[in-house]
Amino acid sequence: MPVLVASDLDRTLIYSAAALALTMPDARAPRLLCVEVHESRPLSYMTETAAQLLTDLGDAAVFVPTTTRTRKQYQRINLPGPAPKYAICANGGHLMVDGVSDLDWHASVTARLAQECAPLDEVREHLLTTADPEWVRKHRVAEDLFAYLVVERELLPEEWVKELAVWAENRGWTVSLQGRKIYAVPKPLTKSAAMREVARRTGADLTLAAGDSLLDADLLLAADRGWRPGHGELADAEWTAPAITALPERGVLAGERIVREFLKATR
């Protein structure tokens, strides 16, 4: 029976230059492999060791990249190892099969959202009217499913984020702050639902997962075993659960440790 490995990408497996957390002396820093280029510039990295481990994992398990990124943003990433047959994009809104969105899955997700939570337009309007242009750099809608802001983190009022979270909660939405992005995501839009669907299709009897943010909590809880790095929203909240391992490593070395743990558990 196959093992299914569903892993968040940004700040879990892959890291921007700002998120690498290279705290060791320069001469002892790990060699890095660039896995994403955007507008002709290198954007995301993993260690060369993690890249080799991920290649081995792709041969040993059903590896499913699982991300809040849009399909277009996901397709910029060039991960080492065999091309994954399945990928989860837009926080579960798109289930990719051989690089193409499964239309039936997407239709079932959008039908659920229409029934269970406030419409995207209402949330978007609230963000536009309450967020201060002084600290907002961009307003974005992703795949007509959820909204996010790109902000100047040091200028962002904590109180505003808390108020937004309460406002969203009452409308069936969740708020997550990740780096310079604030996401507002409908509660029924989950990575876990898409992971369960891939497990059903592949007949996987063991599911493994990793993630660093609030939007990964449902994925970790749905898996048989999960790991979270020593940084990110979940670490800041000291979030844990019985089958979850909280790793001490932070930054790109946490990514390497996570792939190592996946491989160990698979074998």
Automatic annotation (TrEMBL):
<protein>
    <submittedName>
        <fullName>HAD family hydrolase</fullName>
    </submittedName>
</protein>
<dbReference type="GO" id="GO:0016787">
    <property type="term" value="F:hydrolase activity"/>
</dbReference>
<dbReference type="InterPro" id="IPR023214">
    <property type="entry name" value="HAD_sf"/>
</dbReference>
<dbReference type="InterPro" id="IPR024197">
    <property type="entry name" value="TPP-like"/>
</dbReference>
<keyword id="KW-0378">Hydrolase</keyword>
<dbReference type="InterPro" id="IPR036412">
    <property type="entry name" value="HAD-like_sf"/>
</dbReference>
